[in-house]
Amino acid sequence: MSGKLFAVVVILIALASAVPIVTHTFMGATVAPPPDISTHGAEIDKQMDETMIEAGLSFLAAQIVLGIFVWGAAGAKGKLKNFPGGAKYLILAAILLVGAEAIALGAIGSKAWAKVYFQPASADALPIQVQAGQFAFYFRYAGPDGKFGALHPEKIDEGNSNFFGLDPENDIPARDDIQSGELVVPVNKEIHLMMHAKDVGHSFYVRELRIQQDFVPGLDLSLHFTATKIGKYEIVCTQLCGLGHYNMKAYINVMSQDDFNAWLKSQSNT
Amino acid sequence: MSEASAHVVHHGPPTSFIRKHVFSLDHKVIGKQYYALALVAVFTGMVLSWIMRIHLVWPNAPIPLLGLLSKVGAPGGIVTPEYYLSLMTMHGTLMVFFVLTNAPFAAFGNYFLPIQIGAEDMAFPRFNMMSFWTTFIAFCILVAAFFVPDGPPLSGWTAYAPLSAIGKDTGPGEGLGQTLWALSIFVFCIASLLGSLNFIATTLDLRTKGMTLARMPIVSWAWFITSCIALLAFAVLLPACLLLILDRAAGTSFFIPSGLNVSDHLQPHQGGSPLLWQHLFWFFGHPEVYIAILPAIGIVSHILICNMRKPMLSHKTIIYCMMGIGFLSYMVWGHHMFLSGMNPFSALVFSFPTLMITIPATIMTLIWLGSLYGSNLRINSASLFSIGFISMFVSGGVSGFFLAQPSIDIYLHATYFVVGHFHMVMGVAAIMGVFAGTYFWFPKMTGRMMSETLGKWHFFFTLIGTYAIFMPFHYLGLAGNVRRYSAFTDDFLVPLIPVHKFITYAALFTGAAQLIFIFNLIYSRFKGAPAPDNPWECTSLEWSTPSSPPPFDNFGGQHLVVYHDPHQYGVKSSTGDYLMQTSPERAGETP
Predict the structure, then answer these.
(1) Closest chain B residue to A135 measured between Cα atoms?
(2) B457 interfacial to chain A (CB closer than 8 Å)
(3) pLDDT digit string (tens) for B543-585?
(4) For residue A137, which of A245, A28, A24, A13 has the smallest C-alpha distance?
(5) Do A86 and B482 touch (CB under 8 A)?
(6) By the CB < 8 Å criterion, does B265 face chain A?
(7) Minimum-distance CB partner of B475 among A31, A62, A105
(8) Domains in chain B and their CATH numbers?
(9) Which residues of B are less than 8 Å from A199 in CB distance?
(10) Where are the alpha helices (DSSP H) in A95-179?
(11) How does residue B1 score in pLDDT terms, banded at 50, 70 and 90?
């Protein structure tokens, strides 16, 4: 009785688990990635969809077969039967099917990864520096001279809005640098983010852009992307950074090139 | 070599209460002590998860008594953001180290490995006692962190540097609490190293006459392979924790680079690397997953063989798969660090063996399924939890397919998808193995049967409940719900709160269902029906002891001789459809 009940329950659980994956909703909430707004994200999404199909089918098949076999075996008293062909074909199937699946996914998936990480940002990408600190992101643009001022961690003074530790008195390129609490970028333009952490580890995650990258104190890391849709999206920290971690966020504001130019101008005036 | 040393009597029967129940050299008592410690840890960890779940969906609800535990962390019983992180850190640490390492491996392994190979005790009984009491000290040090003035650590069970390394400047809990955490894990590593050495020596040297390696039950193989993995894994975490303690207490800079400005203080460190901690931690951390799951794989295989009344399709393949998984587990640690800033080429190098682990895992699953086919499966609480384990192992395994791919990890990393994945495959699956083992071996450990009716209720509530908790975690992850947040203030997270509510209800329900188990455990210990010598008609040596529980030297002075492998089911013999490993009888035709 309990064995047959298990068979029914496990098959029902498997089918019920698949419903939100297919319908993208659960308890009235949307449980799917938001529409992609990047040039590289489509490949990641495709990879995710293919994996979902392969993993999903494996999941359903295994649970349903488990249910069926348990249904048949539970409490049976008859002659023992062996699985046709024994272990040999099962082992072979696992090696060939899963091996092929793993190699295929690994190989195809590496293309999407390579697109984000193997190619450096192009020469005409817009460089923006981003600094993560407990519990805020700050962004810096080079200003009209196109040069970033040097960083002096000992000069960081949040009270006086010197978030990056600039030294405009002695450092000429720092004088026209633009600091912002919001990442403002032009649409359809490659952005080169130069990332560093001020204090502990943080991370930079924008769901819609399909990008996520840790900030590692002591390392200068970079990331590049092109946003393809105007709008405002949330940037959140995904690396546990302390008590305010849950609240560490900023916005990325994707605007037209003209709006961006106007914004940049308005910032450099202040 | 095994026969010669197998009959050495290590110590006489204990005479005093302290020697019998507290500082016992008897591996069975030590096994039960590990089990009891794991039980305390798992219920503490579970209550912490309840508090977290309640806080996430009702942030302003005062939680009774919590205000007394920490006036600062939970004033009036309302959890602060930093206290949430502390609860999470303690939950993870308790569960991973003191439950998932202790229960399936140290507790059951201690109790049954020597008996299953026909030994009278572990190779080094004093080391064994020391392992447990060192683990107990580690547990006390960790729990002490709850009571220090600035609160328990909040850097998660992974304790990423420099958050964990700098000290008080990084936030509450990062003072003494974090030091206690590092010290606790350091001590825990010593205990685990002693324990693994003991398991290895016992397996290699103390097998009784006729107990060749090939005749060991799969579960003994699992404990043996696990102890080899643990020996290498904890040997790396031990110095890592030492370096962390030195960074915190002695001003060294192993994990802290120069130029960090924390809370407006320029830190006086230079030259360290936060990535070094991640490498050391995950070099331990990934094998740790298998330290939790391999013993469970062994336990359920052992139980299934007995309850299917026929051998597995291939025992050797399962053992080779466990070895393969153990070997591969050392080549994949970097998959936790795809986005950590290490060379992006290395992500592909780590991704490949990670995907390859799917092969031995799938082979094992197919062998379990193929073996179930056409068997006469006896349904009891132990076998139900074993098939429940298979279901959970598959569910937790397939989600690994996503996370093994760096390109998908860009989106899913650090989301609830990851939390759902490891809770299912490492947490729930391993715990199902522990439940299966408990229902199966309880008669041997206590001489009494557990209630099957309660066991079955417990199973179905746990199966449905854990799926209800952890399946939705995956959906949250697909929606990009970031983990380790104490509140959902982001625009895109607010709509997901109903899902979190569902999970909280499921967690409260599933946790409450565990009271059935506790009641069954305690009630059956005193009032359970007396257990026959071999209630499950199982062939392995633990069912050849003269009594339940076995006498202090396990076999009452007998020196067992083993004639068969433990898979003699579905045969004709004087005992019925099975043949004990110790029976000199030859198996007849398959009926």
Answers:
(1) B263
(2) no
(3) 999 999 999 999 998 899 999 999 999 998 888 899 999 999 8
(4) A245
(5) no
(6) no
(7) A31
(8) 33-255+271-578 (1.20.210.10)
(9) 162, 170, 260-263
(10) 99-117
(11) very low
